[in-house]
Design brief:
Chain lengths: 128, 276
């Protein structure tokens, strides 16, 4: 079977938004990020296509106050593993080498029947 | 498997001389395979009334699979005679939602919309929400999966004896930036992959669809593109628009046959069985 329809719809929606959006499936693997997210992350989705959980959670070297963030502290991981919305401001090292401060809000994608099908993060670059 | 069409029309029943060949009843399809005591029914549109009156007396169990609860797919429920026969066992399946299936169906099957309440039905029936994985219904293996259509809606894949029927009566796979493209990112593609028979929404012409994007239905061209994308052997155009005359369906069928890259196309027609 292919992707759950909820992931298909959120991907369609994200592809039309000006806000950076990052989508993972129920296993936590990256399945999509949109063009505005490419500008912040310094990577093109078409070059990546997909990325396992262990890769994307460490690829951008997230830090908060100069200290490395553990995987479990990332808002998207909180949303996925705890099933609750999460918000945090932290720094990443983008694929183009730039260090950027971002503010991210993540939420779990719970389908009817309370099936977890993935999680979504919306984020913004902020001064810092 | 023998597939019978009891209702092929979308949205609202349209009896009349200009729809008598393809039929004016709303969605209802039955499937039998070998074991004649077990009947599978897809949707309970107005067509289910005639099905209920002609059921083989050997049938003892019916699985009724509802794709969703829009009125044209459940309007015949209260007129389905087997629901009033205590010797029959009936399982009614429907899509999951945040509201239990009993409460959702009960909104229709209760006054003032309908004089008979669900609890007053006399057959031994049970309501079940479709599970997330394959499940058995008599000789059939059923898979249900959410598809793009407003409100909770699923499509079904029915398999038996190495054959399969995919039923996506209300479906808009073209909603999105690129269609057709990657099957893994196309609504319903997993259900319909390689199906021997794909019964698919084909409500609109391409021009009509352009005015109705997001309404949850497909153009005939998109139904053909979807069938080609998933490699369905035979496509049955379904859910004919209520404004479509028999002659207009004929014209769309001709168009679809020319557009199909590989595989057959028919227009679903009341009383025209398909054997797989």
């Amino acid at each position: 079977m292919g992707a759950p329809v909820e992931l298909i719809l959120i991907r369609h929606l994200a592809s039309r938004l000006a806000v950076p959006v990052f989508v993972v499936d129920r296993a936590g693997d990256l399945v999509f990020f949109n063009e505005p997210a490419e500008a912040v992350l310094g990577r093109r989705f078409e070059e990546i296509r997909s990325m396992p959980f262990d890769d994307w959670t460490t690829a951008f070297l997230p830090t908060d106050g100069g200290n490395a963030l553990s995987v479990d502290e990332l808002p998207l991981v909180v949303a996925l593993r705890q099933g609750v919305p999460a918000h945090r401001t932290f720094a990443i090292k983008a694929g183009d080498g730039a260090r950027r401060m971002i503010e991210a809000t993540a939420f779990p994608l719970l389908a009817t029947g309370n099936d977890l099908v993935g999680a979504v993060a919306m984020f913004w670059e902020v001064p810092g | 498997m023998k597939v019978d069409f009891w209702g092929t029309r979308g949205s609202i029943a349209t009896p009349g001389t200009d729809t008598e060949r393809y039929g004016g009843d709303t969605s209802c399809v039955s499937i039998v395979d070998g074991d004649v005591s077990h009947l599978l029914v897809l949707d309970a549109g107005s067509g289910i009334r005639r099905l209920g009156l002609s059921i083989d007396p050997q049938v003892t169990h019916i699985d009724l699979l509802l794709s969703h609860l829009h009125l044209d797919h459940i309007v015949g429920l209260g007129f389905f005679a087997p629901l009033f026969r205590p010797e029959l066992t009936i399982t009614i399946w429907g899509p999951r939602s945040t509201t239990p299936l009993l409460d959702r169906l009960g909104r229709y099957l209760s006054p003032p919309l309908f004089p008979v309440r669900l609890r007053d039905l006399q057959s031994s029936y049970q309501l079940r929400e479709v599970p997330s994985g394959p499940f058995a219904a008599g000789p059939f293996t059923i898979t249900a999966e959410a598809v793009i259509h407003p409100d909770p809606a699923v499509g079904y894949r029915v398999a038996a004896d190495g054959r399969s029927v995919a039923y996506l009566p209300d479906h808009e796979p073209a909603l999105g930036p690129a269609f057709p493209s990657d099957p893994a990112w196309t609504s319903g593609a997993g259900l319909a992959a390689g199906a021997d028979l794909l019964i698919h929404d084909a409500q609109y012409t391409t021009a009509e669809y352009a005015e109705r994007v997001g309404w949850g239905h497909s153009s005939v061209d998109d139904a053909v593109a979807f069938a080609d994308l998933v490699g369905a052997r035979q496509l049955a155009l379904f859910h004919h628009d209520p404004s479509r005359s028999d002659d207009a369906v004929d014209a769309l069928l001709d168009h679809a046959r020319r557009a199909r890259r590989a595989g057959e196309v028919v227009a679903a027609r009341q009383g025209l069985p398909i054997t797989i």
